[in-house]
Amino acid sequence: MTGGNRGIGRAIAEAFVANGDKVAVTTRSGGAPDGALDVRCDVTDPAQVEAAFATIEEAHGPVEVLVANAGITADTLILRMSEEDWSSVIDTNLTGSFRLAKRAAKGMLRLRRGRIVFISSVVGLLGSAGQANYAASKAGLVGMARSLARELGSRSITANVVAPGFIETDMTGVLTDEQKAAIKAQVPLGRYGSAAEIADTVLWLTGPGAAYVTGAVIPVDGGLGMGH
């Protein structure tokens, strides 16, 4: 899985380790959880993606489950959004996920099985002022997953999307109490989610109980994005 050094990504990696799986985590700066193979990889560089897969396959064998979680933000209103603000977010969040899925699918097709999970966001379908780039990148994952579900399904490979809402992480920790209260007021369950709740959903999607689930968008957002 990618982006597993903190927040949601780390919780997902830890859940797989606790489940007894062989886990490899890619990050740009290191810091994979204990029990996981720590691999450096910038998903915006095709050569680094290829090298990361080679390292992982040598250590663990073919990749059976891909969780594409690496993501960045560069929030600003559209009139102030630079070309770099747009392209950097799309390249990491969307194109990076394409590179990972393409490389993982190669091995999964040989195995005739596999699970691909893209970590999107409630913002991808709900929209968010100041996040046109981020929302576009996260919505794009849905179209990609559904296309892969159709393309790879005959080989028992599933492709799904998990769309987290507001989750307690370092990224939300910087918000003021007023901002947090305003966000909670929009959520029917009236609270933030935990990274562990996202991890549990990913674990289910990649386990035996979800073998007939593909092309799905699973919201884990306390009801925030209902109808989207």
From TrEMBL:
Oxidoreductase in keyword set: yes
GO molecular-function term, one example from the UniProt record: oxidoreductase activity, acting on the CH-OH group of donors, NAD or NADP as acceptor
Ranges of residues in domain Ketoreductase: 2-170
InterPro entries, sorted: KR_dom (IPR057326), NAD(P)-bd_dom_sf (IPR036291), Sc_DH/Rdtase_CS (IPR020904), SDR_fam (IPR002347)
Gene Ontology biological process terms from the UniProt entry: fatty acid elongation
Keywords, in A-Z order: Oxidoreductase
Key word Lipid metabolism present: no
Pfam family, one: adh_short_C2
The family this protein is said to belong to: Belongs to the short-chain dehydrogenases/reductases (SDR) family.
PANTHER family per the UniProt record, alphabetical: 3-OXOACYL-[ACYL-CARRIER-PROTEIN] REDUCTASE FABG (PTHR42760:SF96), SHORT-CHAIN DEHYDROGENASES/REDUCTASES FAMILY MEMBER (PTHR42760)
NCBIfam families the UniProt entry points to: PRK12826.1-2 (NF009466)
Protein name: SDR family oxidoreductase
